[in-house]
Amino acid sequence: MLNYKEIEILNSLIKGEKCSFRAISEKYGISDRAARYYIDNIDYILKILGYKITEKDRNIIFLETDQDFSKIFEILKKAQKLSVDDRVNILKLILFFDEKGLNITKISEELQISRTTIKKDMKLLSEELGKDGIKLNYKNNIGYKPEGNNGEILIKQIELIEEILELSKGKDDFKIVKTQILNYFYKYIKEENIENTKEFIVEVEKVMELNINGESYNKIFSYMLILLNFDGKYGNSQDSVSKKFLAHTDEYEKIKEILENILKATVKQEMLIEMTDLITGITINSFENNSFEDWINEELIIKKMISKVSKIVKTDLTRDEILYNGLLYHIKPAMYRIKNNIQITNSVFKELILAKDPVLNVVNEGIKEIEELFGVKFPEDEIALIGFHIKASIERNTSEKTKKVILICGLGYGSSKVLEQSLKENYDLDIVDVLPYYLIEDTLPNYKNIDLILSTVDLKHKYGDVPVVKINPLLKEDDFVKLSKYGIKKGNRKISMKKLMKIIKNNTTMENSDKLIEELKQELENSIVDDLSDAGTILREILNKENVRFAEKVQDWKEAITKSGNILVENKVVKSGYVEEMIKLVKKHGAYIVIEEGIAIPHAGISENVLKTGVSLLIVKEKVFFPSGRGANIFLSFATINKNDHLNILNDLFELITKYNFIEEISKISKYEELEKYFRKEFVC
């Protein structure tokens, strides 16, 4: 439909008047973009009804007036305002398909509807999507975007496409009433892809002897249209990686040939895999029993199965990420093998069958819903393979044995030791070794029987079946959640060394307290917290007026490191070459020195450029950002002559950050006296 402003513009054009985008925007107090949107709407109506659309000559807009316009005004009289459902559908189109997100001010201007009305519609939409676990999150300067399970979001996208494709099949006068919805639809969905999808389905049916019809046709068509239209948006998730086996199938090759013939272009493997996965689902049971949604959102069926198995074995396996991933990489390939009569052979799985392991009965119960849904029967070999995953999960989640862990850090030695200590304080772990990132390719293969790899950086490769978990250099709540998924639960509360020594001192005479402390540390390594040294002690002692600076702003991260490094040079802590080393390390390894948003710890290795142990503190009012996007306005640079000093400084700093709100408090400080006041307030000096 057209709003009253668009009808006024159309009337003027029919009378033979000429106008410009600027004249329209000035007359109605709208932006040039909105003016162009009005003309696009008018053109859409004219095109549907068989009229010649507006012509543009150097931004002057006019219309051929030797046409009979009586029909258009009859239809426009029938047009009504956008209903709530219409507005919600437009909001869905923007949320689900616009990469920029939904901006309330922008959509309010485009639809000529108040922000209050849009906000009410957003509330309704938020409640509707919330039922499926989808949240509408607002991001500054971008707008609203949906967040939640990718499968659930995809299903909502498919349902929306289905609904609007039905609208587009309506009569001309009905389509005009829905003009604005269809305008947004064709803004995101190319018409040529609708035709390509139709042709693809016809060819697939012919080549692969399929019959795609009935209640699933529209869903299949809509999903294929999404895949074709948003090439590259889908196929990058973990669920998609689990389907890569399809790239080696006959179905994949046939689909590749059909699609590339239609599109006259090379098609990305990710999209071909998703298409092949969809066609595989059709060949298994034609998506009867309303199984389409379960096929494309397999996370749901796998989690249901794990939940059912958990109840049977009376052990909670629902948070076991290893089990979920194992089943994710097995269920669909298993159904493909069943359909194509392919058998698996593995002596380990055969042992479960020969031993009549009770876990097989558990799997038979857990797999029933999937069998009924897709009309398949899992043979005993496939049951045994699933049983292998479940048996391992039960052992992981009931065993009390200490997990063997390799810790990989992108930071230096000191930071790694601090993280190692933090892990030991929170968990009963056997940290077999702490490796720097650059050594893992040569060193990691030498370690056997490792349960888990913990890393503060992204690793490029997999290392056998050993799971890799990325954690923060300073442990956060989301790290605890991640680790719990791998059966690693927080250990019992640790004993405070300070309190323990106080009790011993009050009840005995100590001849050698240092020796006692060392022996207690060795014997009670994983059960004790070494809190004898007060937080902030080292930094309080070595920070002074000579090595603390303040700045309003710096040009970039290099200037910040240079300024803080030069303080070390001025105080004869390092030579100028040390500052260059700090910058080179960031260029080589990235923003690893930003240990927490807001604070960076520039430093280099122990070398001839270090004259003595020392620190410098630069506090910048405006945060600067590194290439990775991480930012800092506090730069605590340091240099040490030995590893003990290095570790002590980092221990001190990390404790200040985690326990004393160091970053937030220090960011407010603009002169040295305020820094002294902070230390006096937080600690007994």
From TrEMBL:
GO biological process: phosphoenolpyruvate-dependent sugar phosphotransferase system; regulation of DNA-templated transcription
InterPro entries listed in its UniProt record: BglG_antiterminators, HTH_11, PRD, PRD_sf, PTrfase/Anion_transptr, PTS_EIIA_type-2_dom, PTS_EIIB-like_sf, PTS_EIIB_2
SUPFAM superfamilies associated with the record: Phoshotransferase/anion transport protein, PTS system IIB component-like, PTS-regulatory domain, PRD
Domain PRD as annotated: residue spans: 293-400
MF (Gene Ontology): protein-N(PI)-phosphohistidine-sugar phosphotransferase activity
Record-linked Pfam families: HTH_11, PRD, PTS_EIIA_2
Chain ranges of the PTS EIIA type-2 domain: 541-682
Ranges for domain PTS EIIB type-2: 403-495
Keywords associated with the record: Repeat, Transferase
Protein name: PRD domain protein
Superkingdom of origin organism: Bacteria
PANTHER family in the cross-refs: CRYPTIC BETA-GLUCOSIDE BGL OPERON ANTITERMINATOR, TRANSCRIPTIONAL REGULATOR MANR
Annotated CDD domains: PTS_IIA_fru (cd00211), PTS_IIB_bgl_like (cd05568)
